């Protein structure tokens, strides 16, 4: 796929900014031994509320959810920052963000204990970032600017 210089810069900046956000959020959780998703899960709303509450209240499930969340964020972020396995990282990130959105959907009439930092109606920042990851998935750049470039160079056929 060919990109204009401006298009390539925009896509790489989007990938790096999204990667940084995932990586930083993950590392904050990984480096804090007291961090848990329990309060967030208990604050869930929407039609999957009972599933998220079950995760929070199940002593054998919660540590797995916490581990997958913290390390998932970190590894997805690294993938996007380094430009390695970016399409897989973008898919994993979209799945994780979908879970975040479904646990706290921006639907009218759902109140949460923890206030959001804005007013939302259906579309919130979580969904916007999910769409950004879809763009990163659809228009990959790691084969041009990223570690994947080295694999792409090895796999190019001589003309």
UniProtKB/TrEMBL annotation:
Its main location: membrane. It comes from the Bacteria. One of its GO terms (cellular component) is membrane. InterPro entries: DoxX. It is found in: Membrane. The chain crosses the membrane at residues 61-82, 89-107, 127-147. Keywords: Membrane, Transmembrane, Transmembrane helix. Pfam families: DoxX. It is a multi-pass membrane protein. This is DoxX. It comes from Lentimicrobium saccharophilum.
